[in-house]
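Worked example 3 (structure in, sequence out).
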């Protein structure tokens, strides 16, 4: 009996030691993953704050003064109408021209928040429209149903494809490109071209300073909890692949989307804390 207990104790000790060794071996890997996640979150936060700062600057320092100046001009026109009505025409023409400039600024701000082509054409047609003249030929295909994609996923997919096709236009205008999108629990996209591919430093395994456009594509995917990779393929050409999760984004959209009454005014959700 003592021999059996002693053997069990030895086995238990060996098992515990093995488990401790395995746990210790995973600690550096977990630490690296944690550090990578923290860096990724910091980049996303920095990018979001820069965008908010840009938007505030555009609204407060550019559009705001323009509208205030227009209000002053209308006051001047009202006074002129009472005293010197013959001078009204040039004043109103000036106000109209400046109002047209303000409308253009508002449209630019709206375009920066969400590309209007997505609302006017839909994701696939918007990509096809942007791809015109990009290179000799661009084929755009969507396997599945593009309807009902979350807005954030549509924007990220469009911007990633847009950036990839912009690189094709700049570096491989004489080649061809394929844009392939497919949908299951995630949205998958691929942009492949027949151009020269990535610089030699990338192919040789070096880690040069990433170009802003390539880094932006990865950030747009990471903001949704997805991933993006840019590689060169054998025989020449660059391949951009991305995975954009749908489930989490759809749940967030349902949570934040206000319901509307008959008047179209938003009704706050009750019981949300």
């Amino acid at each position: 009996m003592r021999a059996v207990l002693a053997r069990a104790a030895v086995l238990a000790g060996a098992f515990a030691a093995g488990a401790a060794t395995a746990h210790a071996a995973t600690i550096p890997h977990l630490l690296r993953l944690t550090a990578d996640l923290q860096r990724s979150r910091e980049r996303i936060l920095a990018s979001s704050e820069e965008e908010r700062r840009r938007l505030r600057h555009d609204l407060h320092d550019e559009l705001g003064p323009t509208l205030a100046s227009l209000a002053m001009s209308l006051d001047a026109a009202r006074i002129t109408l009472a005293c010197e009505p013959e001078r009204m025409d040039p004043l109103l023409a000036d106000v109209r021209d400046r109002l047209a400039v303000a409308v253009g600024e508002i449209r630019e701000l709206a375009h920066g928040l969400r590309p209007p082509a997505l609302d006017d054409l839909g994701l696939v047609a918007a990509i096809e429209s942007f791809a015109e003249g990009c290179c000799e030929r661009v084929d755009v295909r969507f396997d599945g149903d593009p309807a009902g994609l979350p807005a954030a996923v549509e924007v990220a997919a469009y911007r990633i494809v847009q950036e990839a096709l912009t690189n094709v236009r700049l570096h491989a205008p004489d080649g061809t490109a394929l844009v392939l999108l497919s949908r299951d629990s995630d949205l998958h996209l691929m942009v492949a071209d027949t151009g020269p591919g990535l610089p030699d430093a990338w192919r040789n395994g070096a880690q040069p300073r990433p170009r802003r456009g390539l880094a932006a594509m990865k950030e747009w995917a990471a903001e949704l909890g997805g991933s993006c990779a840019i590689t060169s393929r054998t025989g020449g050409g660059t391949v951009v692949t991305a995975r954009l999760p749908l489930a989490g984004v759809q749940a967030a959209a349902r949570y934040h989307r206000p319901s509307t009454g008959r008047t179209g005014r938003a009704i706050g959700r009750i019981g949300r804390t």
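Notes: Helices lie at 2-83, 88-113, 116-121, 123-131, 151-171, 200-203, 212-222, 247-256. Residues 122-255 form a domain with the Heat Shock Protein 90 fold (CATH 3.30.565.10).
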